[in-house]
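Appendix B. Raw example, untouched.
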Amino acid sequence: MFVSVIVPSYNHAQYLEERIESILQQTYTEFELILLDDLSPDHSAEILNKYKNHPKVSHCIINDKNSGSTFYQWNKGMSLAKGELIWIAESDDVADATFLEKLVTHFIQNPNLVLAYSQSHRMNAQGEVTGSWKDFTDAVDPILFANDFEMSGLEYINRFLNRQNTVPNASGVLFKKQTFLDVGGANPSLRFIGDWEIWAKIISQGDLCYTAECLNYFRYHHTSVIAQAKKKKDHFEVRRQVILFRESMNTFLNDYRKTQPLANTVYFKNKKALSKELRKNASLAIRRRYYDRIIPTSMLALRTLPFYVVPFFLLQLIIQLLLSILLIAPYKTICKLPR
């Protein structure tokens, strides 16, 4: 099976050569390498251009303008890819030499497989391994993720992805290109959690395989996607991204369950989670005293509730608002006064 390896590069010059070399040294050699830079402010383009004539490199493209979302780069790479399987190899991570060899085998053995991923080493900015990312999934099932398994995609979503993104790093994932295209590709508006959405949509179409062996080195540092997301997003941006994800999945699953009845359970669980997120958003507006957002967020939440629950929710919001105005706000003001 031929693999297209897409490296969406941005501002990771210090890690880029190590990343590319870990791809070129794969024991599985049936692949092409697509290098895409999103107008990095560092010297990433200079490093990428050193590889543009390598026989494995089919494309080396430096954007004239920053796209604003890595998921535009994912979609762009997909339009160039010739492979049946896709590996999004993020520009600051590193791969074990057997990554492709071991994951491709699962697709050969199971034609219904649409996505396979491995456990990842946790690696710091200096390249030191400080553990694994298993603790990322321990809260949902510490025993299952200690071992290899295959599972129906809808079962996996129902048990795990409906709660959180249990696929911690794109660099540890291999998936079918056609399935990615069939479900509409990546959503660039979900700049920080677009991977969560596309994994859920892809996995819904077939089986998933997980290997507990660490075949990927997921680097965590102050310029990583996760670190930047935590640094830049305000509380409403966090909620907005999750709500957009839930709404997108709601639409997708509502259509899908018409032809796939097993998707019903996942659909209703996601719908319930969407309602919960909207209620949290309304409460957040009150707690943060964003008065211009209280009515809009409350109205959105009310639309998702059964009529008999509406009075109780309204009462809860009114009590929260009174407490915020009459007690919490004055208390915080007093605490800030100079002593």
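End of appendix B.
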